[in-house]
Amino acid sequence: MNNKVVEVVFGNSLYCTMKKSKLKSNKIILFNTLFSVSNLSKINEYKLNINMNIECYKEEKNFEKEIKLLDKYIKENAKIRVWSSHKTIEPYLLLLFIVNHIKNKNIDIYVTYSEELNNSITPACLTETELEELSKLEHKINEEEQKEYSKKWQNLIKTNSPMRIIENNEILSIDLNYLDEYIINLLKEKGITTISKLTIEIMSKYHTQDLIIVYFIDKLIQKEIHDKDYCVVGI
Fold first, then answer.
1. CA distance 174 to 92
2. Alpha carbons within 13 A on the beta-carbon side of 13
3. For the chain, which terminus, N or C, has the lower number of CB atoms within 10 Å?
4. What backbone torsions phi and psi does residue 217 show, to the nearest 5 degrees?
């Protein structure tokens, strides 16, 4: 392994913060892949289609460019480090995908888990200094872990459910209406609330992208699911 370090990250927030930290001298590969709500049937072609009618994700997502860049650094025998979490679905799915991709390439993979620093739910919520601190808590993924993570990823591809979430420390493959009852019960509990407050409440249990949660709330509103005892007003 040479001295080059490649940071593999999910999301613009983490990417931008890392670019402001001392880690900016490393190579950073940004993945904006919503594996949690994508059809995985074209995953081997590095293409994703979102299982939701979200305006900014209507077109097929192609991340072949990111993979080619990753493979280039692998051939150069660089150190690959994935920034992940056991609490938030997207960075965890990215870890599974990367491990599965690299498993037969005879290269070491390292990972940081955000919860190991101040119990943070995702690397995206960390400051520049905290990212630097977390980098010192990296783990080398051993052979057994690689097999375990790869198997998990292959099972997700095989099942190819409309959505994946983390619940009780386990990945669940679910339908898109899975959260409906939970959201309605929250509404009954809150009475009158706003979309933003409801989104924050849901995200405190299901750590996923806010636009996904807003999609589910809006879907229920469009179905005109309402009751005299609760309603959603404004944002």
1. 17
2. 9
3. C
4. -65, -45
Question: In this structure, is the dihedral angle defined by the CA atoms of residues 220, 54, 42 and 40, taken in order, positive or negative?
Answer: negative
Residue 35: phi and psi, rounded to 5, are -60, -30
Residue type, 147: K
* Encoded tokens for 79: 């150190």
Query: How many residues would you count in the chain?
Result: 235
pLDDT in tens, the chain (235 residues): 678 999 999 999 999 999 999 999 999 999 999 999 999 999 999 999 988 876 556 678 899 999 999 999 999 999 999 999 999 999 999 999 999 999 888 888 999 999 999 999 999 999 999 999 999 999 999 999 999 999 999 999 999 999 999 998 899 999 999 998 888 888 888 777 888 888 889 998 888 888 888 888 888 877 755 555 555 655 5
Tell me the Cα Rg of the chain: 19
- Report the predicted TM-score, pTM, of the whole model to 2 decimal places: 0.90
Residues 37, 58 contacting (CB under 8 angstroms)? no
What is the distance between the alpha carbons of residues 44 and 26, in angstroms, rounded to a whole number? 27
List phi, psi (to 5°) of 215: -60, -45
d(CA 218, CA 159): 27
